[in-house]
Design goal:
Blueprint (H helix, E strand, L loop, with lengths): L2 H27 L12 H27 L15 H27 L2 H30 L8 H26 L3
Helix pairs in contact: 1-3, 2-5, 3-4, 4-5
Length: about 180
C-alpha cells in the first residue's frame, strides 16, 4: 500500500474513534445535551439531524475514493503538496471535530464565568479549522484527474460534508450558541 494511503487510513483509524469517543463521552456524561442547540429553532434541528447522516455518508464516500481510486503519485493539488493536501485536510477535520464537544461542554458548565464568553471564539475558531479542512478536501477533489473513477461521487459527498461543516456548523450554529 502506498505510504500516502497508509497515512490516510491511520488518520482515520486514530482520529475517527477520537471524534466518536469525544461525542460519546459528552453525551453520556452531560446532564442536558440539548443545551448544545442553543437558540436554534426546533424546525431547523431536523435539517441538522438529517444532514448529519448525509454528511457522514459523504465523508465515507470521498474517503473511500481517495483510498481506493486515487493514485497518490499522480495527484496534483495546491502548493506542491500532492496527496499530502488531503491528509492535512483530514487532520484539521478530525482534530477540530474531536475538540468541539468537550470545548462546548466546558464553556456551558465548567468554565469560570469570566472566560466562558471568550470560549465562544475558541469554539468558533475550532469550527473554522474543521470548515477549512472540509473545503480543502473539496477543492482537492476537484483538482483530481477527471478520469478518476468515483471523482464526481466524491465531490458530491464532499459537498454534503461541507454543507454540514461549513454552512450549518461554522456559519449558522455559533450565532445561536451562547455559553
Amino acid at each position: 500500500m502506498d505510504p500516502h494511503h497508509r497515512r490516510l487510513i491511520a488518520l482515520n483509524l486514530i482520529g475517527g474513534p477520537a471524534v466518536l469517543a469525544s461525542y460519546a463521552h459528552g453525551f453520556l456524561n452531560y446532564e442536558d445535551p440539548s443545551r448544545l442547540w442553543g437558540a436554534i429553532p426546533d424546525a431547523v434541528r431536523g435539517l441538522y439531524t438529517a444532514n448529519m447522516f448525509f454528511a457522514a455518508a459523504g465523508y465515507l464516500i470521498f474517503t473511500w475514493v481517495l483510498w481506493r481510486r486515487v493514485d497518490p503519485r499522480r495527484v496534483q493539488t495546491y502548493l506542491g503538496l500532492g496527496f499530502t493536501w488531503f491528509t492535512r485536510g483530514y487532520g484539521l477535520i478530525l482534530l477540530g471535530s474531536t475538540l468541539w464537544l468537550p470545548l462546548c461542554f466546558y464553556a456551558l458548565d465548567d468554565a469560570p464565568r469570566a472566560i466562558a464568553g471568550s470560549l465562544w471564539y475558541v469554539i468558533w475558531l475550532d469550527l473554522a479549522l474543521v470548515a477549512a479542512g472540509s473545503l480543502g478536501v473539496l477543492v482537492g477533489l476537484q483538482r483530481l484527474d477527471r478520469a478518476t473513477p468515483g471523482r464526481r461521487l466524491a465531490i458530491v459527498g464532499a459537498l454534503l460534508f461541507c454543507l454540514q461543516t461549513v454552512v450549518l456548523d461554522f456559519l449558522i450554529w455559533p450565532w445561536f450558541f451562547t455559553p
